[in-house]
Amino acid sequence: MRWIRFSQAGALAYGILEGERIVEVAGDPFGGWEKTRTVHALAEVKIEVPVIPPTFYCVGLNYTAHIKEAAAKFGTMPDLPTQPDVGYRSNNALIAHEENVVIPAGATKVQYEGELAVVIGKRAKNLSEAEALSCVLGYSIGNDVSERAWQKSDRTLWRAKNTDTFKPMGPWIETDVDLDALETRVRVNGTETSRFATNSMLFGVEAYISAISRYITLYPGDMIWMGTDGTSPDLRAGDEVEVEISGIGVLRNRFVAAAGKG
Fold it and tell me: Domains of the chain (ranges plus CATH)?
């Protein structure tokens, strides 16, 4: 099942995507729902961010190649984590499929990170890894846009990761997913620049859900972005980035200069 959050004529709703049509529901996938008789053509609605999470968790370093390549860029030795480490992102940065990422004035090294986004469907606490997926509603796609110069110079990630529009997500939530079968591909202006097995993580979805729920209660709508592999070219205004995860879909966003920036 594909859950899509959309708007039409200013009205916001959830629906179930069936091919190129959306069956609107009363309610939402987190608190109860039922189908209505209202049907929309996908091409006639605006796709919105699939969920605005109560808490936006993230995984910073979760693929060996990415860690080694990042260390080389920053002139440090690679330091592979020995346990799941959890961070946070800010909701203000979320934008939807086909919305623009705005490169702010002063940004000099903007890069993509194509990521699997895990959407929690029900309250969870103290789950074992064997139980972990029982709380998952489904999966979406995220692009964890980063400004690497700021990431290197600042003491925190407050602007390098959380600048407005730096977190494209979508286009929907897919509930029927085989994690081991997923492949992530990223294209810039139609040319493939990255490809990796999505689930070849140091610590998988189950490990992170178990680790988080040991200390923090997970709630419906929470989400966890699972990190990325490989490296990204520096992006410029006019570039279009597509993040595709097989079986889920394609997230597409154009990068544009901030108003007044050349």
Answer: 1-48 (2.30.30.370), 49-257 (3.90.850.10)
